[in-house]
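Service request form, structural biology core

Requester: graduate student, group of Dr. S.
Request type: structure prediction, single chain
Budget code: on file
Notes: please return the result as structure tokens.

Sequence provided:
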Amino acid sequence: MPGAAEIVFVALIGLAIGSFLNVVVHRLPLGESLSTPRSRCAGCGVAIATYDNIPVVSWIALGGRCRNCKAPISARYPIVEALTAATFAAVAAARGFDAGLALELPFAAVLIAVAAIDLDHRIVPNRILLPAAVWGIAAGLAVWTGFMPEALAAGAGAFAFLMLAALAYPAGMGMGDVKLAGVMGLYLGLEVIPALAAAFVAGTVVGLAMIVREGGGARKKGVPFAPFLALGGLVSLLVGDDLISLYADSLLE
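Core staff response, request fulfilled:
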């Protein structure tokens, strides 16, 4: 069990990564550079000073408005930063403060980024998935060599499962979701099974809630599935092994 200082350290890293994820979520779908130019106010175009770009703190201090023109700054920015910090801390607490974080924390960051992008643009970019897959294999070989056969099999299995689902119900998910499931398998191994189960349960609950609220018209609305996959991935990062053990124990009773 990691100590409080280690968890706080990981959370601070999460705040910084969350700030970068905001840049990724905003710029990558538009094909813009992730490094230049510096972050600017969408209202007046003035570059944001370093002291006004401290994750969460600056947004609160400025009252959610640009220092120069007083235009509102979306609450999504501190939410993504705080969510990333909380997720990183929770992963470290659940999985341990060890070399495995080299796989687990980047994976968590990828899930947060693709969920936000899919919500905004209804796409799951290959520019995130391909590097994530490469890193999952490379870091997995370096950290958990014996895990790679399971990871590769799980990635292929999750990809095939979602491919069948996409072919059966093309309006419900796209190839981005299929590829994301494959990447999840590379990081989670067999724990991708409860991840996919959680994703489908969450998606079903939200879909039914929309039908109850909006009636038959809700069926015509597309609901991005990557956020549900991301939720499932985070659930498995935190308690996936426990869920598998619980299911295995239930079979033995």
